[in-house]
Amino acid sequence: MSSFSRFQRLLRLGRTLTLSQTNRRVLNQNVLKHAASPQANLIARLFSANAEPNPEHHSIIKDTEKTIGSSSTHEFQAETRMLLDIVAQSLYSEKEVFVRELISNASDALEKFRYLSLSGTVEGLQDTDRKLEIHISTNKQERILTIQDTGIGMTKEEMLSNLGVIARSGSKQFIEGLKKKSATGENTQKIIGQFGVGFYSAFMVADKVEVYSKSAISTQGYKWSSKGAGTYNIQEAEGVQPGTKIMIYLKPDCREFADNDTIKNIIQKYSNFVGSPIYLNGTKENIVQPLWLMDPKSVTPQQHGEFYRFISNSFDLPRYTLHYNADVPISIHALLYFPEGKPGLFEMSRETETGVALYSKKILIRNRTDNILPKWLRFVKGVVDSEDIPLNLSRELLQNSPLIRKLTTVLKTRVLRFLLDQSKKKPEEYEKFYADYGLFLKEGIIVNHDQQEKEEIAKLLRFESSHMQGGVKVGLQDYISRIKDGGKLILYLAAPSRVLAESSPYYESLKSRNQEVLFCYEPYDELVLMTLQQFNGYKVVSAEKDMRDDKKAADLTNLGADSLKRSEIDSLTKWIKAQLNGRASSVSATNRLENHPCVVTVEEMAAARHFIRTQSHQVPEDKRYALLQPQFEINPKHPIIKKLHKLSQSDIELASLLAKQLFANAMVGAGLVDDPRLILTSMNELLTKCLEKY
After folding, report:
1. How far apart, in whole angstroms, are the C-alpha atoms of residue 269 and residue 367?
2. Closest of 198, 5, 186 to residue 84, by C-alpha
3. How far is CA 42 from CA 27, 38, 315, 649, in A?
4. For position 454, what pLDDT does the model report?
5. Which long-range contacts (CB under 8 A, 24 or more apart) does 217-225 make?
6. What does the pLDDT read at residue 11?
7. Distance of alpha carbon 100 from alpha carbon 197, whole angstroms
């Protein structure tokens, strides 16, 4: 789609006065990409005119804190200082994740307060009806980023234990305490933190960090401050609001984290689905709902469309939607989409990462990951959330564990089962999907080493059949259902088109026996079926290999009067073998040909054709024939072969040209010549010799 067409579509969307907040966000993101163009300015004005006012625009961040009394200085232990250096410089791959970590900590503080307020287990809990929110403000001029929550807050002792000791997780202690009281641990599922290092990620970007906090069970506030150089200070403070406020004084080279748009993008990337509202400079940012955690029956198609556009940054709609929740064998909340549009060149590349984002408790772990779905399902887009996944310390990389492999297996199986159900319920729609994305399924068979999984994918394959009209495609299970007389073969034939397949010498005898054959029109189709090898106990065999392995084809006892005699066949095959001069590994007669004079077979035709297409130009011609080992089979009843026998005794030069041309034609018909134009020279020689007779 051209850039102008995209703007036209944006313009039509912008004129719709009933745009939801999510649609506006998607529009705004795409307008910003082309902000320099006149079309973008026009859309931006229209978009602004249609925008609804945000009634929740407010901020609680105020400069009300004031320290009182003297401060106490505390030293990090030696190993703690070393850990602080590791966290600040080596633990995280991207500096921006410190925002995710601090928001996650704020979310935990809110969830702790929410639980204690509802449970009534703590005496003296103050202001239990206050709004639970996270507020962020940026000050680019002063290079200050502030993150404040209205959660549980901290006492002085908690500051000492939670902020003075790295790898001591207050959230983890809180969860363990709750689990002792409740065997199920149901109320702990929304709490994110587990390692106790996220707070210190702020020192990746900060010259100094200040923390103001007032516990929900105390009236006294405190200030914690440190430059991350081995010591920290704690001092009483007044004017501290309930909860925790973190002020990050950014390093000069990290000033971008005091920019509103930068923080906005980070929130949308990592923390958009945090359970409590997040306000950035007074504007609520996390407006998109985590649909994957909702009841699938309660989510409307419109919500799915908006959510799909949000996570995929596209304008189309999902073709299929798979909303899947499970608690066993592991906790999984998955919302997967199958795109409506055809894949682009970028999606076709195997270097492209899968389009599924991984979350843990609504916090983004990885935007794109190859651990959850295999590469051949990279066209699937969506979200997977599992609180059971084992993360490493930085909450970025997945640990290689049996749980990860189990998660991958469960999702992969569920996707295949879903597509199989769709192929049965709505076959016409599935055929359209298969036409666009069948290549990925075929790739899944080629790259797979597990036979059972290959056969599961193979249930989704579709091919034209010799027993069906052109354009009608069938699956391997359909083929099996029509097998009679105890047959154990699924036969296929590769050809550029149906016309060429039906006129192929390899199909002749199969047609006469009314044997069903699957027609493969794409070059890689036969590689897929060759790799598959078997399906539901049936061997998957090419028509060429079936002909080569047919022992009855060599039975020449009932050829009839119009055929060469056995002695003539023997002398002719020996003569042809000599004329071909090592090109054919063997020459023999067959009874499986009717209308064709000859045919060439090799052991694995699909592999041979793939070799010709990709590597034959690197191999000299004589070695090429040695690798292919082509077997040349002649039809002793065909007029050309009978004439060749006579010429071999009367005009050896003409007969030799004819024998070589027949072999060359058979190689072309088998698809074993990379450039058929090469045979024109020998064909012209043959024609010249023939015309000399007249």
Report:
1. 8
2. 198
3. 13, 6, 19, 87
4. 97
5. 217/122, 217/123, 217/124, 217/125, 217/126, 217/155, 218/153, 218/155, 219/126, 220/156, 221/65, 222/154, 222/155, 222/156, 222/159, 223/65, 223/67, 223/71, 224/159, 224/163
6. 38
7. 12
